[in-house]
């Protein structure tokens, strides 16, 4: 076990699997006490039990991040059982394949689905910060990391609700960083590209996954641990001068022009075909 966040208390939402699980486990291995929060109570307890077995300190907390009463209880659990709150990773989101299947063209979007997407993907991060920040300020400061998505940074033919909500997360990060920075609160965003998790494997076909990887400058899909290590850096003292930033963890997916994958596949070196 390391000590990069030794003595800190962390909450990770959406921590029963995927990016949240990897982050909770990494923070615990680096010395943090962790509240493993998720709607999946059984999965959250499984992750918390694994952390305890490995010698760390963790409790599970069933949490629907769209409900303020449950967010309030989540923060109170961190304080009452683990002794405070210094780190919040707002990671929970609607990422299941059946959810994205409802998030298609704008003209077929239902108001109910749009509102439900925003209630989890944006309101959840707002509520987490709302209830965590006063506790963090009282304890001398803290660090918040919000998980966004590269869907918030460019247009697509679907996922209208998800991408708009995640763009709101980006703005929320900047507002939190600006408003509370002088009171000891840092806030940053991590923006994943294609990350292979159980959820993404169930919703992204192998052909689509290969097409995405073809546009990565690092020729592989992302792993949950790639995000976890970025979060660890951002909440550690090593990032004490970093706030209000969005960092894409995407293998370079957003760093190049659209013809990149064609040039790689064809062996061409330039778009200049004259002569």
What does this structure look like?
- This protein has one domain: NAD(P)-binding Rossmann-like Domain (Rossmann fold), CATH 3.40.50.
- It is built from 11 helices and 9 strands.
- The chain has helices at residues 18-29, 41-53, 68-82, 97-100, 111-121, 123-138, 160-180, 198-203, 206-213, 224-235, 260-266, and strands spanning 9-13, 33-38, 57-62, 87-90, 142-147, 185-192, 195-196, 222-223, 246-249.
- The strands form 2 sheets. It has a 7-stranded parallel beta sheet with strand order 3-2-1-4-5-6-9, sandwiched between helices. A two-stranded parallel sheet has the order 7-8.
- Helix 1 (18-29) links the parallel strand 1 and strand 2 (33-38).
- Helix 1 (18-29) packs parallel to helix 2, helix 3 runs parallel beside helix 6 (123-138) and helix 6 runs parallel beside helix 7.
- The longest helix is centred in the middle third of the chain and has 21 residues, at 160-180.
- The chain is globular.
List keywords for this structure.
275 residues, alpha/beta, Rossmann fold, seven-stranded parallel β-sheet, 11 helices, 9 strands
Overall morphology: globular
Please name the CATH architecture: 3-Layer(aba) Sandwich
Q: Which structural class fits the helix and strand makeup?
A: alpha/beta
Portion of residues in beta strands equals: 15-25%
- Oligomer classification: single chain
The CATH C-level name is Alpha Beta
Supply the CATH superfamily name: NAD(P)-binding Rossmann-like Domain
Could you name the CATH topology?
Answer: Rossmann fold
Order of helices and strands: EHEHEHEHHHEHEEHHEHEH
Number of strands: 9
Number of helices: 11
| C-alpha termini separation | 60 Å
Reported for the largest beta sheet, the result is: 7 strands, parallel
Strand order of the largest sheet: 3-2-1-4-5-6-9
Give the low-pLDDT segments: none
Rg, alpha carbons: 19 Å
